[in-house]
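Q: What structure does this chain adopt?
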Amino acid sequence: MAYQGTLGIERTRLVYALFLVCAGLAILGSLLAASDGSVWRWLHYLTKPTATLLLLVVVFRNRAPSSRTYGMAVAIGLLFAAAGDVFLMLPGDYFLAGLICFLLTHCAYIFALTRDAKFAAHLGVFGFFAVIALFVVAGLWTSLPPEMGIPVIIYALALGAMAAQAVSRLRQFSGTPAQATARFAAYGGLLFMISDTLLAYGRFRWQIPYNALWVLGTYYAAQYFFARSTQAHDSKR
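A:
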């Protein structure tokens, strides 16, 4: 049994290593495609969703997730994220379709984060993230196409609520066995907010040098931490 447990850990580490390789190649492929045309685009197409799907494998490999419902909700969120990855990288303008997929990802994560913690338990945290979301939208507003105004507002609210709930949940679990995994989810929520803000400003407002590096780097870090947050703690929900 101990051998099987060690073997399972090693296999999970291998999946994480493959994820890091795919994430790095996805970033590299995007940067090279932006500078040299479509020669390297295939690398980006192949590795970008694959990296996210490898984290899905990790979630399913966790034999004792912090919560069965929590783990399944994170898995569903990763599936929607992989679909969003595909829409955002395809030729043509599928930005709205990608936005909807990632909106569903945030809804799945909010559902996960409320399985073992009260929603909006710390109103100050939610107020802080609401202000941040308001400033993000305000900074983009004059640069947005008219048809994107309402979708961006809805998305920003969902993103802010997800990050706020992740931080609020960590505060609720302070000093408990669940604190370590709750910290992973909080890191994930914060990094996701940074990644999506950079993505939006890079698309609609500014030319950000090496944009793919910052957007995808923080995005994959966020998803990695959400996958890590499904590790075991004492919760049985």
